[in-house]
Amino acid sequence: MSRIGRAQIQTTAIALLVVGLIIGLAVGYLVAPGKTVTETKTVGAGETITTTITKMITETVGAEGTITIKAWASGSPVDTTRVENIKRAAEILNQMLAAAGVNVRIEVETQFFRGDYMDKLTAAFSAGEAPDIIAMKNLPTLADGGYVIALDDYVQKYWTLLEDVYPTLWNAVKYKGHIWAIPQDTEARPLYFRKDVLRQLGWSEEEINALPEKIMRGEITLQDLIQVAKQAEEQGLVEWGFYHRPNWGGTPFLILYYQYGGVAQDPDTGKLVLDKDAALKTLQLLYKMAQEDKVLPETMIGTDWRTIHSDFVNGRVLFWFGGTWHWAEWQRVEYHEQLGALPEDYEWENIGFALVPAPEPGLKPMTLSSPYLYYVTSQSKYPEIAFLLIVLATSAPLDAIHAVDSGHLPVRMTTVDHPYYKKSKFHSEVAYMLEYTSFEPLHPKYTAYKEAWITAIAKVEKGEATPEQALNELVNTLQAEIGEDIIIR
Length: 489
Fold this sequence. Notes:
The chain is of the alpha/beta class. It has 2 domains: 3-186 and 371-436, D-Maltodextrin-Binding Protein, domain 2; 191-368 and 445-488, 3-Layer(aba) Sandwich (D-Maltodextrin-Binding Protein, domain 2). Helix content is 45%, strand content 13%. The longest helix is centred in the N-terminal third of the chain and has 20 residues, at 3-22.
């Protein structure tokens, strides 16, 4: 879509939200602008949303004035809407306040980071200069470290603006009995494949188009695709059959572990869990792919991201364990050696996507979601205003902008009916994956868990350890690093 088209959508989004708030409607209504509404939703004893918000702001700021809210976020190059939507939310709030006759203006200062985010955040806190809003993951670390505040009271107070959040996503923001964040986006982690390479292998269009459904039904497994990858390599059609992430990220490592029956967190105690049988099978499969079948580079861990994306979009790799957001990233970043940023028509012609296949017959296909979250920091001078901004920034029209432009899936049930979202063929076709999704555990020592895993994976892929040796090292490391917070089964 052109910049003009996107600007029109954004303007419409703001207008709809302002009108909705002024008449006291829940944000969920705003995706049906032609509907006639005679009821006004309330919060508390006969108090409209507009009244509640304007009353709170005048009590906080006074009858007039300007306040500055700082918002920080991190992510891939296409995720800048995490801060841009906070600016849009402030404009919504400003227009609402102006319409209500309140002479208060909210300004937003933003920063977006690609790396070293936690180090920058820690330094800002030490200097007493932390932002008001942050968009990131790391919930246990942020909550236990006192970086963010619990939002339970605000969620209850403004529930009418949040009731269309997907219920399952609340599980991603609850920790130690409290709500610490608002879901900012979510995603699925598909297996991408090169349609053009499959055509060269002799696959018909019908066979290529049927691949995702056959994977979904368990009729085609990862073992089957390993054989396809070997054929493609033997015929010189690709350099490698498979690429995966250069770091943890859950894909495909945690997915494979879950598919083999592994559990990562005990639901009763909250402790992290390592199921040795599932872990061994995961390590054995990765060892087989890298050392025996030679369909996966043994130096995959630590490979730079640009090399990974460039090799896949240029057709040098047949299968890639990626994320839904990469579909949008390939359209924004110039990875292709002739085309630069990919036209979406090229993607549809040459690239397909499916669930991560069952590793072997009898197991289930799966994906993984790891939602980004909006938090209010403990150093914010205006926590309730910051909270309102993150609520508005995730409302259906703005949620649709972020989801479509960054390749993520929405956090609001009403977003899927928004015109901007419905125009995206990719989003419509990938949404089913959430029915097969799983989540990473929420635990303050999960970083140590991931690092131990990735070390074990790197060793088996390089052939520096057998799967059995790597498992023993993994168990010993987890027991040493995590102690009483790990259960070894």
